[in-house]
């Protein structure tokens, strides 16, 4: 219950579009091999290109908006993500390891935005959340 | 995995700032590690791990000093950390997975304290650098 508090109190201050864009951009920059899923996104040739790429921004926003759904349904994340899980397996063919990578990047982005407010206790709650989301997304893989 | 000249420069530049708060960052990183990943506490049954404990701060300093050595000798991290590598392989035998966890927590602490300096490029360089350090520390395991 306290952990839910820690999650929602941070989430209420998150700019979903900015954070989402930044998290996805950092994923593609820090772990360049993740670009393999985004060959249709155009120019990903440099950090500057990636950060400024409108498709990256839009997709980052989409992904983080979806996270928001999980936060609204903290007691039912598995069901919330069932269809998305099938999508990522059957259509997108994304190795679930990438969900963990993105989750950790999101945590780092939150740390940089919330600094002192992103306490170790806060981080713990969020690590749990990104772990649960990653697990739910991988759940329907076959 | 080798660091490019640009990456080395990014690591060295940020280190100059980080070094001024090395002890605090070291302690905070460990605090984040033990909070988010309680299983890591199993390596420290002999420590008082409460927030602000002398042992926590002392150990945090040790870790950051070693990272400082690696930065100073960034062209030959292997030689700089040879003794530490043996220590971890033969005496400490910390499971390799934990180096990733600590590296992640160090990145969180640095991001929280220097958000404007922690650009995507700097983030990528530091992730790679810490990954390098972790490799050196685990390369004699078997």
TrEMBL record, chain A:
Keywords: Heme, Iron, Metal-binding, Oxygen transport, Transport. Pfam families: Globin. One of its GO terms (biological process) is hydrogen peroxide catabolic process. InterPro entries: Globin, Globin-like_sf, Globin/Proto, Hemoglobin_b, Hemoglobin_oxygen_transport. It comes from the Eukaryota. GO terms for cellular component: blood microparticle; haptoglobin-hemoglobin complex; hemoglobin complex. CDD domains: Hb-beta-like (cd08925). Belongs to the globin family. Heterotetramer of two alpha chains and two beta chains. This is Hemoglobin subunit epsilon.
From TrEMBL, chain B:
It comes from the Eukaryota. The keyword Iron applies. GO terms for molecular function: haptoglobin binding; heme binding; iron ion binding; organic acid binding; oxygen binding; oxygen carrier activity; peroxidase activity. One of its GO terms (cellular component) is blood microparticle. The keyword Ligase does not apply. It holds the Pfam family Globin. Keywords: Heme, Iron, Metal-binding, Oxygen transport, Transport. Residues 2-142 form the Globin domain. InterPro entries: Globin, Globin-like_sf, Globin/Proto, Hemoglobin_a-typ, Hemoglobin_oxygen_transport, Hemoglobin_pi. GO terms for biological process: hydrogen peroxide catabolic process. CDD domains: Hb-alpha-like. Involved in oxygen transport from the lung to the various peripheral tissues. Belongs to the globin family. This is Hemoglobin subunit pi.
């Amino acid at each position: 219950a306290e952990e839910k508090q820690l999650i929602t109190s941070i989430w209420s201050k998150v700019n979903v579009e900015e954070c989402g864009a930044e998290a996805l951009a950092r994923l593609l920059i820090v772990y360049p091999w993740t670009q393999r899923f985004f060959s249709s996104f155009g120019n990903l040739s440099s950090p500057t290109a990636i950060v400024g790429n409108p498709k990256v921004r839009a997709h980052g926003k989409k992904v983080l908006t979806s996270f928001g759904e999980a936060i609204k349904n903290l007691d039912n994340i598995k069901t919330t993500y069932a269809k998305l899980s099938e999508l990522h397996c059957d259509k997108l063919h994304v190795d679930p390891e990438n969900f963990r990578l993105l989750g950790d990047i999101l945590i780092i982005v939150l740390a940089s935005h919330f600094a002192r407010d992103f306490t170790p206790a806060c981080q713990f709650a969020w690590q749990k959340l990104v772990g649960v989301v990653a697990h739910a997304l991988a759940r329907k893989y076959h | 995995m080798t660091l490019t000249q640009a990456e080395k420069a990014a690591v060295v530049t940020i280190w100059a700032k980080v070094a001024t708060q090395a002890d605090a960052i070291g302690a905070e990183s460990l605090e984040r590690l033990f909070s988010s990943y309680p299983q890591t506490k199993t390596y420290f049954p002999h420590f008082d791990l409460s927030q602000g404990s002398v042992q926590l701060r002392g150990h945090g300093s040790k870790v950051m000093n070693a990272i400082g050595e690696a930065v100073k000798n960034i062209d030959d991290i292997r030689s700089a950390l040879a003794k530490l590598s043996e220590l971890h392989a033969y005496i400490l035998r910390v499971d390799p997975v934990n180096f990733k966890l600590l590296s992640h927590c160090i990145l969180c602490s640095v991001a929280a304290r220097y958000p404007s300096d922690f650009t995507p490029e700097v983030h990528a360089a530091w992730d790679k650098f810490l990954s390098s350090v972790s490799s050196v520390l685990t390369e004699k395991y078997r």
